[in-house]
């Protein structure tokens, strides 16, 4: 039986026409994604994003527009990925959990290999 999907939030940190993408370490697949992570019990989705972007990047963010959700089945698990725009409020980005970051316009995203669950979000951002 398929277990319930894991709720994951992704933050699209936006600065003008650029968005921030982050790359997992090679031993975690080396794919590009958006900073974020699992929503913990009792946490709101924006609350989880504020916590995750603080833990992963050392920045304080304001969570803005809800973007989309994608239910994706990986071989070992299913995730429900929900995305929100975020705006930097305070701090300088430091990479605590990723090997690289890039500020790109969505039109440049074809040069990066994203996690499968992120592909619909990336397409949506190209058309926004
Ligand atoms: N953060 C994030 N995770 C994503 C994205 N797309 C995607 O498939 N995932 C998957 O969703 C899951 C989120 O896990 P995570 O490791 O980021 O979350 P977390 O920080 O709460 O994890 P932890 O259990 O290691 O503390 C991972 O399996 C990750 O590969 C994305 O854009 N951002």
TrEMBL record:
Entry GO MF terms? 8-oxo-7,8-dihydrodeoxyguanosine triphosphate pyrophosphatase activity; 8-oxo-7,8-dihydroguanosine triphosphate pyrophosphatase activity; 8-oxo-dGDP phosphatase activity; 8-oxo-GDP phosphatase activity; metal ion binding
Annotated Gene3D superfamilies: Nucleoside Triphosphate Pyrophosphohydrolase
Organism domain of life: Bacteria
**Catalysed transformations (reactions):** 8-oxo-GTP + H2O = 8-oxo-GMP + diphosphate + H(+); 8-oxo-dGTP + H2O = 8-oxo-dGMP + diphosphate + H(+)
For this UniProt record, the keywords arranged alphabetically read as follows: DNA damage, DNA repair, DNA replication, Hydrolase, Magnesium, Metal-binding, Mutator protein
Cofactor dependence? Mg(2+)
Q: Domain named Nudix hydrolase: which ranges?
A: 4-127
List, alphabetically, the InterPro entries matched: MutT-like (IPR047127), Nudix_hydrolase (IPR020476), NUDIX_hydrolase-like_dom_sf (IPR015797), NUDIX_hydrolase_CS (IPR020084), NUDIX_hydrolase_dom (IPR000086)
Q: What class of enzyme is it?
A: hydrolase
Q: Which GO terms describe its biological process?
A: DNA repair; DNA replication
Q: What is its EC number?
A: 3.6.1.55
- Any single Pfam family the record assigns to this protein: NUDIX
Residue intervals passing through the bilayer: none
Question: What does the similarity note say?
Answer: Belongs to the Nudix hydrolase family.
Task: Please report the name of this protein according to its UniProt entry.
Answer: 8-oxo-dGTP diphosphatase
The species this protein belongs to is Grimontia celer
Gene assigned in the entry: nudG
